Amino acid sequence: MAVLKIGNKAPNFLLQSNDGKTHALKDFFGKKIVLFFYPKDDTPTCTKQVCSFRDNLSGIEEKGAVVIGISPDGIKSHNKFVLKYKLNFQILSDETKKVIKKYGVWNKKILFGRKYMGVVRTTYIINEEGRISHIFPKVLVNGHINKVLKVLAE
Question: What pTM does this model have?
Fold first, then answer.
């Protein structure tokens, strides 16, 4: 499992998006990248998280950044999610969890006393050269977008 730190080169990836196109992280170099990992499409907390990025996308773009979401859900699930909530940024599918593991966000979790492996909600800010400039581990959705906007303004 990767342990990424600020200053590390962000691991590249090649993943399919909800629109069926394949995207690599390096395709977005030259802009700041808000790369967030979330557990599951169309669940209450994940929906709140992606909608906060959707609703603040213009403010993020004004700061020279793009938003990319990654979850282990498949393209079919992503398509429904994007259409239902009118998402305006790329949602990438990592069904193999290869990228999720590269970024160190596949970990043991506990819910109501039950232990299982899952995606730990995490956001990375990646600079224009592809280096990690900020990490938000174990994200709490309330107020998270404000923290992201503040970091992008620095």
Answer: 0.94
